């Protein structure tokens, strides 16, 4: 089988060919592209040498396409159009005007700093598709390591990892309880107040982190927490709180969830720092713009509800 010639022409060759075909003149094509006529002539000659066929018939009034040129013009236009469209799409991704962003969350987007952050981000970058995944810090670090998450918002920064971590905001910890609970008369609670309560938690993901956190706090006062693990969603968990089956730890941003029969009381001194964690090797422009916006909106050391 005869080996096809290797083509080495550039976009400027295609643009010059298309311009000459549309204008019927090398001179007019040169004016349109703002180059010398000799440049157009040279590019057409190079293109013809590469292809191995004459593309134009030269005459005193200008040029007209040969049969080969007529066959080639539509393909040249299509190729140039696709390349230019591809360049625009990639450029938009590079400027974070478009693209896909994968974000790990510990809690919901119901309210608070994260909700405000993504409302502002969506206003600035409406063509970036954002997908969210809930999980624990360990879950998120594993997914970042596998390049399956671009960025994660985590509680604290105790887990060892090689990634960049930026403290963005802090949140008060609350206890959700039924409205007639004896502790409901207090304006704030201590861990000693909650030592004998049954804690309703969810399995896996954030639930594991919640249990670890509660165990740490109660062990500090010589108590062991009693957990009732419920494989249900956050709203359903609060429904169990309303039915007096136990109490549930909540973040300030989650206390906007209104469930009949449920009240929230702050736990004194329990303010948790939240971090944005991302790999320095992640080259997703959308992740960089999100992190930049988050650092602008966040004020480390302050509490956001």
Topology:
Elements: H1 11-23, H2 26-33, H3 37-51, E1 56-59, E2 62-65, H4 67-94, E3 99-105, H5 112-124, E4 128-134, H6 137-145, E5 151-155, E6 164-178, H7 191-194, E7 198-201, H8 206-220, E8 226-229, H9 234-242, E9 248-251, E10 262-278, H10 285-297
Parallel strand pairs: 3-4, 3-5, 7-8
Antiparallel strand pairs: 1-2, 5-10, 6-9, 6-10
Helix pairs in contact: 1-2, 1-3, 1-4, 2-3, 5-10
Explain what this protein looks like in three dimensions.
- Helix content is 42%, strand content 23%.
- By secondary structure, the protein is α/β, with parallel strands linked by helices.
- The chain has two domains: 11-94, Arc Repressor Mutant, subunit A; 100-297, D-Maltodextrin-Binding Protein, domain 2.
- A six-stranded mixed sheet has the order 4-3-5-10-6-9. Strands 1-2 form a two-stranded antiparallel ribbon.
- The longest helix has 28 residues, at 67-94.
- The radius of gyration is 31 Å and the shape is rod-shaped.
- The mean pLDDT is 86.
TL;DR of this structure?
The chain is of the alpha/beta class and 305 residues long.
The number of distinct helices, counting runs of at least 4 residues, comes to: 10
Q: What percent of residues are in strands?
A: 15-25%
| Number of strand segments | 10
Q: Provide the CATH architecture of the largest domain.
A: 3-Layer(aba) Sandwich
């Amino acid at each position: 089988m005869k080996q096809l010639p290797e083509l080495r022409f550039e976009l400027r060759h295609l643009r010059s060919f298309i311009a000459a075909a549309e204008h019927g003149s090398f001179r007019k094509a040169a004016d349109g592209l703002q180059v010398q006529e000799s440049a157009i002539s040279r590019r057409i000659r190079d293109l013809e040498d590469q292809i191995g066929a004459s593309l134009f018939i030269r005459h005193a009034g200008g040029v007209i396409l040969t049969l080969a040129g007529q066959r080639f013009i539509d393909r040249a236009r299509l190729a140039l159009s696709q390349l230019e469209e591809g360049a625009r799409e990639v450029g938009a991704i590079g400027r974070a005007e478009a693209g896909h962003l994968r974000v790990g969350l510990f809690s919901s987007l119901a309210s608070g700093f994260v909700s405000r952050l993504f409302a502002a981000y969506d206003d600035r970058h409406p063509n970036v598709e954002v997908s969210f995944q809930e999980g624990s810090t360990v879950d998120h670090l594993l997914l970042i390591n596998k390049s399956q998450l671009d960025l994660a918002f985590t509680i604290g920064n105790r887990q060892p990892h090689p990634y960049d971590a930026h403290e963005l905001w802090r949140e008060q910890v609350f206890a959700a309880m039924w409205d007639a609970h004896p502790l409901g008369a207090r304006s704030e609670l201590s861990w000693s107040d909650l030592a004998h309560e049954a804690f309703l938690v969810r399995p896996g993901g954030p639930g594991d982190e919640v249990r670890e956190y509660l165990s740490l706090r109660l062990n500090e006062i010589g108590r062991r927490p009693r957990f009732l693990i419920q494989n249900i969603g956050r709203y359903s968990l609060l429904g169990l709180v309303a039915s007096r089956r136990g109490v549930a730890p909540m973040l300030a941003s989650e206390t906007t969830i209104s469930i009949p029969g449920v009240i929230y009381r702050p736990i004194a001194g329990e303010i948790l720092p939240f971090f944005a964690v991302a790999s320095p090797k992640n080259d997703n422009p959308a992740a960089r713009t999100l992190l930049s916006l988050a650092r602008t909106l966040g004020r480390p050391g302050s509490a956001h509800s």
